[in-house]
Amino acid sequence: MLELRGLIDAIWGLISGLLSGLGFSPNLISLIGYAIIAAVLFGVVALIVLFLVWWERKVSAHMQDRLGPMRVGWHGVIQTIADALKLLQKEDITPKAIDFPIHFWAPVITFVAAFMVYVTVPFGKGLIVSDLSVGILYIIAITTFTVIGLLMAGWGSNNKYSLLGGFRSAAQVISYEVPLTLALLGVIMIAQTLSLGAIVTQQDTIFKWYVWRQPLGFAIFWIAATAECNRTPFDLPEADSELVAGFVTEYSGMKFAMFFLAEFVNMFTASVIAVTLFFGGWMSPFGPDFGPSWLWFLGKTLFFVFVLMWFRWTYPRLRVDQLMGFAWKVLLPLAFLNILLTGIGIYIFD
Amino acid sequence: MAEATISLNHYLMLSGILFTIGVFGVLTRRNAIAILMSVELMFNAVNITLVAFSDFVTPAALTGQIIALFTIVVAAAEAAVALAVVLLIYRSFKGINVDRINFMKW
Amino acid sequence: MSDAFLTNLTFYVLSFCVIAGGIFVVSSRNLFHSAVFLVFTLFSVAGIFVMQHAYFLAAIQVLIYVGAVAMLMIFGVMLTTQLTNVRLRHVNEQAWPAFAVCLFFLGFLVYGLWDTPFKISQAAAPAEVTRAIGTLLMTEYVLPFEVVSVLLLVALIGAVVIAKKE
Amino acid sequence: MLQNAWIIPALPLLAFVLIVFFTHRHRALSAGLSIGAIVAGFIFSVTILFKVLGDPGPHEFYFKWLDFGTWDLQMGLLIDPLTAIMLLVVTIVSSCVQIYSVGYMQGDKLFSRYFAYISLFSFSMLGLVLANNFAEIFIFWELVGLTSYLLIGFWFEKKSAADAGKKAFITTRAGDLGFIVGILIIFFACGTLNFQEVFAKIETGAFAGGLVTAAAIFVFAGAVGKSAQFPLHVWLPDAMEGPTPVSALIHAATMVAAGVYLVARTMTIFAASETAGLVVAIIGITTSFMAASIALVQNDIKRVLAYSTVSQLGYMIMALGLGALTAGTFHLLTHAFFKALLFLAAGSVIHAVHTNDIQEMGGLGNKMRITATTMFIASFSIAGIFPLSGFWSKDEIVAATVGHPIFLVLTLAVAFMTAFYMFRLCFLTFTGTPRDRKKFDHAQESPKSMTVPLIILAFLSVFAGWVGIPWLEHGYSSFVYHHHPHHAEPSILLMIISLSIGLSGIGLAYLIYYKKSISADAIAERFKPLYTLLYNKYYFDEIYDAIIVQPCYAICDFWFWFDQRIVDGAVNGSATLTIWWSIAKRWFDDHIVDGAVNGLGYTVRGAGGILRFAQTGRLQNYALVIFAGVILIWFLR
């Protein structure tokens, strides 16, 4: 039923046949294949992100009893594309006192790191670029690059607001990364694997979703992931009212757009991890092969993205001291407790 | 290309070069944090060696990988303590250039 | 164009990244640049680990070195650098003797490693390396594992105590 | 299930640790923890009893604690009917006493510590009961001794309490010395300390003869100390300085019964040696008779009960010595309940009138109905009145003495005295006119937490013995026995004799202390020397003081003198010699040695002045030199 894998295989068969007909060597063909995959992946995620930006605006508008963008396209669907085009055209202002290479590479690193995660994400049945044996670890590792990007942006801008924003953001992201990783450990302990593909296939009905066995783990993960994405109530790094706009103060045009897009990609990533590890990924809740898998994946993920947006327009922002205290004094002990309980559970039930 | 494949010696050579760079940094940089970075380079050189031997000589036992793992952990601990020390030096000497910290001389 | 060619290409590109990154780390005048190049170097080393089939170690390398150690370095740089544009010597006066010694050392190393044969084993690696490492850590290497965990705790407390303001 | 029996002692230990480390500031929590642990243990014990009823075992579970290669020390559990019964007794009495203590110790500033000690005691006692080898039982044996010491001296600011604690500890230690010698003999002979293995050696005859007798008598010495048998009984009456619930738990129902339990547990050893059995029986009956006679004239309510305990323990020991394991342990079971009840009721009375002297009480029956009723039930039980618990167990013991005329006569005499002094106590306390008006007016019934345990124990004092009614097909005697079930033919004649003796004792007490138709003072006057002898407890304390304590002091004085004069003189003399020698050496040191040393010093200082410039103070200089040096060494290798 509407599985995309067959389609993709067919198209790839066509292309590779064409290329080998043109006399390309198999190595070159596989290289070209990787390039195509990367491009398609980028395109898909970029498309999703464009949709998310529009969606966020609509959700926020409706939550505040407004309409949001309405003019460009049906209910403003292509508003984001128009915005992106505008940003592309704008002048890229580079202040004089900046540390140029650092300033220049910061958004690139952030953006690329945000996309690199998708190499090992199972989008649907068979729709995974490379099911790495260390999948979750890979994702956690790659996401740390975001911090490097933020710090570079903060430092490179040579601006006190940027520096403070960068500091805050790095401290926050590093702090919340610890409980986040430890919360995921519970699932890993039960699943006995780090591979995302294997974890998804273990949860083939709604009853096998790991969220039932790891409710505490999921709660910790979700809070920490919200903080990782710098979403409200943890949006201190860019707190407009305090730090102007944090580390993005000195950015404009396309570079700003890169940060902006990376933020939405990270949001999508957090939802993807939640869905994959705790809610069965692309598996339908009613047993295997019930409806197209990629649709299930997309539906679940978008639901969690919606939850993130919901948070943003519901909760006030924390203070910076509360933020760190919460990570180290509440989430971290809870995460340890969760690991302990999981260990005891495994010992007792297996 | 006959000797096309990368042999153990290649990795060891790479490791040696990286190690030498690290040593040079440790011996010459004036800034304490730069020295720490150079030390990290040396650690990494050693890790490359360990993993290379693990991959080529004892692939089944994984000894090298595990020792490298321990090295990484110890390096992390070292970095934390060393940076704390650097911060303390910075507070006491208003600077972290190591050649200024020479009152343990004659 | 062969499979080996791709492997070689990867190795040489990665080696270039490692060495160039390393040289920048030790030679850059701007400490922040050094730190960023350190990240670059360490990431490239992770690539080398992948080439050596140590996927778990590569992930850990990125997680710990890039995510934690390099971050600490950057924090250290930010916390200790006075924002002045005075250009100071970034190397001390023994740079040239040290360079000579290092060059000698490197030459010696290259000479020694050029043709040395090693006992290459053809044994297969365990199917699931990550699982094998986990098992080994909990069985054969459990004592070092525990010792390292204690060391980490000590370092954590020690770092806090040392860095805390009076 | 059964292998998890270790949880029973572990729970009170956990409670002890938690109280000591966490909840010691919180009274209610401490008491709750302690009581919760022991009640849980009680529930577990009941399930164990049912398991054992289904399959008597013995079940043994152990691990090697210390492995010495050819032999090892074990830690383990041995569960058989005797263990199951003891677990039940200990947990029931301990539960009741702890609940009672909530009321009794209310207001004491060391409330939490008290419960910590009680929990530690429960742990030790349960561990003792469950032990599967001599080493383990000895460890727990000493632990109960320790807790007993701690609890006797619980009010340590009172000198008499502190002294009583020390006395108990030191006196029992004398017995424990024998015990450990016995254990060593057994180990020497058998090469193992495991009960089952030792018994197996005895059964096969590998361990026999004089060695068994010696082992049995030495092990029995431990029991003598712990169960307060003649001649080491002197500590138990003094132990009454502790809080009354402690007396009820430790010095009436459980710990003092540990000696009896030890003999019962190692019955095979005693059965293997007739001499040892006889010694045990003689000591038992001697103790029993002596203690009962002392109890006749004591005025301290707790001391009467203490001597009664000694006397009843003597009964059990005697029964065991005569080989009647069933009778001895059955009496242990029933005695635990009614004696704990007696103590708790006495505690209730003391709580009400704040005195221990029965001459200052009287007429309390109307004010303290529950206490008085339960105390009378317990007294009827201990006097062996049909059909209370005590009747059945006492009857078993009397039946065991048939065939040994001297024992039979003395046993019956003790039974008479028991009935007499118990009812003397009850009549003086609860009936008649108040002899101390002020204390009487002040008295009132104790709170619920104290009376409920009394009622529970009264219920048990009446009915617990019914499990051993001799006509019962599958009664106590077919459950706990040595070798083969012991079915004493129920002898109606014997029952009637013992019942009538009990009743006549009560009657005499009734005449003297209730009707006052015979004057107690007149009798005391008439048998003045005997009365004085009994009143002063056969002068045991004084005798021990004269033959043990005073000589010890004398020896100490002598050695003090020796130390002061001879040893110190020698030391001082040698010191004087040393001083002279030092003066001589000093000259040598100042001129010859220092000269050489200083010369060397000047040389080194000169060299250092030049070489110190190598120390630049810069780490990187040193590092470069080290690195270059390493390369050089490697190169030159």
Map the helices and strands.
The complex is a heterotetramer of chains A (350), B (106), C (166) and D (637).
Chain A: H1 4-21, H2 26-63, H3 79-89, H4 100-116, H5 135-156, H6 160-191, H7 196-202, H8 210-213, H9 215-228, H10 240-243, H11 253-278, H12 293-312, H13 320-349
Helix pairs in contact in A: 2-11, 2-12, 3-11, 4-5, 4-11, 5-6, 6-9, 6-13, 9-11, 9-13, 11-12
Chain B: H1 8-28, H2 32-56, H3 63-93
Chain C: H1 3-27, H2 31-51, H3 55-80, H4 95-113, H5 129-138, H6 142-163
Helix pairs in contact in C: 1-2, 2-3
In short, what is this structure?
The complex is a heterotetramer of chains A (350), B (106), C (166) and D (637). Chain A has 350 residues and is mainly α. Helix content of chain A is 69%, strand content 0%.
Question: How would you sum up this structure, described in words?
Answer:
The complex is a heterotetramer of chains A (350), B (106), C (166) and D (637). Chain A is mainly α. Chain A starts with a helix and ends with a helix. Chain A folds into two domains: 65 residues; 255 residues, no CATH class. Chain A is built from 13 helices and no strands. Chain B has one domain: Helix Hairpins. Chain B is built from three helices and no strands. Chain C has a domain of 112 residues: Four Helix Bundle (Hemerythrin (Met), subunit A), CATH 1.20.120. Chain C is globular. The mean pLDDT of chain C is 83. The chains are: A mainly alpha (350), B mainly alpha (106), C mainly alpha (166), D mainly alpha (637). At the A-C interface, helix 4, helix 5 and helix 6 of A face helix 1, helix 2, helix 3 and helix 5 of C.
